[in-house]
Amino acid sequence: MAPDALILLVNYRHEDEVVTFIREQLLQQEQVELTIVVCDNGSTDSDGFRKQLSAWKQVHYFSAGTNLGYFGGAAAGLKYFTQTIGELPSWTIVCNTDVELPGRDFLYRLFSLSRGALVAAPAVHSTLSGHQQNPFREQRVSLSYLKFMRAIYSFYPLYFLYQLLAYVKRFFRRARTAEGVTRNVYAVHGTFFAFHRTFFAQGGSLQYGSFLFGEELFVAEQLAGMQSACRYVPELQIEHREHASTGRFKSPGMVKYMKESTDYLIREVYRG
Predict the structure, then answer these.
(1) What is the pLDDT of residues 183-219, one digit of tens each?
(2) Which of 36, 47, 78, 269 is the most exposed place for a label (fewest CB within 10 A)?
(3) Would you kindly state where each structural domain of the chain is located, as residue ranges?
(4) SS3 sequence of 205-272
C-alpha cells in the first residue's frame, strides 16, 4: 500500500512559484498518495489563485485572511485539514516552494528511509551560497548562544558584519553533495520538515508563537522532550533555490523578526 502524506504549503505573494511547484514537483511524485493544502497568507489575486489550484482534486485552498507567517500558516492549514478533510495521514510535510525535488520517487524513498522517525529531512543544498543547509545543528544549541544571537540581532550593523563573516566562512566550506550516513541530529533546516503522525500523537505541534524564524529549534526542542531527534537522510538531497534578495543578508525588518523569534525561544522554549 502506498504511503499517504499531507503537504502543507504557505503562500505569501508567490502564487506562480506555488503553482509551478505543485504542478512540476509534487504532482509528479510516484508511489505516494498526496493531499496538498495551500494556506494563502496573502496573494495579489486570491480568486485567480484559488481557481488555478482548483484544477487539481488533490489540492485544497485555504485563505488565512492575514499573514500568519511560515509555521503559523502551516498550523492553520493543518487545522483546516483535520476539521474539513479527514484524519492525519502517515506523514505531514511542511516545506518551502522554492525547492527542487530529486526525482519522482523522492517522497517514497524518504519515507522508506525514515521508518521509526518522528521528524525527517533530506540534505538541503543552497543554490545561492553553494553550501549544505542540513543538518541545521548536530547538537543542541545553548541558552548562552541564543542570548548572544539576540544581541547580534539587536543592532543591524552588527548583524550585517556577523553575517558577512559567516558567509565568507561558508564560502570555503561549500559542498555540492552531502556527506555521511542517515542519522539522528538535533535540528534540521526549516526548508523541509516531514512529520510522522506519531509526532502529533505524542503532543507535537506546529503552533509556534513567533512570526518567522527559529522553527528549527522549536521542533528540535519538542523532539528532545519526547526523547527523540530529527532523522537526517543525506542520501536524498533537494535543491533550495533561495531568492537572492533574502537568502544572504536579511533586511532590517527581517532581522527584527529574527530577534523576536530568538526572544520567544529564550523565554518560552528554553525558559531562560
Answers:
(1) 999 999 999 999 999 999 999 999 999 999 999 999 9
(2) 47
(3) 4-269
(4) CCCCCCCCCCHHHHHHHHHHHCCCCEEEEEEEEEEECCCHHHHCCCCHHHHHHHHHHHHHHHHHHCCC
**Cα 242 from Cα 125, distance rounded (Å):** 10
Which residues are CB-contacts of 68 (< 8 A; sequence separation ≥ 6)? 10, 39, 41, 75, 76
Residue the block writes with cell 521542533? 219
Grid cell in block for residue 65: 485572511
CA distance 232 to 210: 25
Rounded to whole angstroms, how far apart are CA atoms 43 and 65? Answer: 10
Grid cell locating 254: 527581517
Check residue 130 and give its pLDDT: 86
The predicted pLDDT at position 168 comes to 78
Q: Which of 9, 14, 3, 4 is nearest to 242 (CA)?
A: 14
pLDDT digits (tens, 9 = 90+) for 18-74: 999 999 999 999 999 999 999 999 998 999 999 999 999 999 999 999 999 999 999
* The pLDDT of residue 77 is above 70: yes
Among 153, 172, 157, 158, smallest CA distance to 265 is for 153
CATH code for the structural domain at 4-269: 3.90.550.10
Q: How confident is the model at residue 175 (pLDDT cuts 50, 70, 90)?
A: low
User: Where does 85-188 have alpha helices with state H?
Assistant: 106-113, 143-153, 156-171
User: Could you tell me which residues are beta bridge partners of residue 230?
Assistant: 119, 185
pLDDT, tens digit (0-9, with 9 covering 90-100), for 1-33: 678 999 999 999 999 999 999 999 999 999 999
Q: Give the 3-state secondary structure of residue 129.
A: coil
Q: Give residue 85's Cα distance to chain centre.
A: 23
Q: Beta partners for 36?
A: 7, 59
Q: Whole-model pTM?
A: 0.94
> Using CA atoms, how far apart are residues 272 and 270, in angstroms rounded to an integer?
5
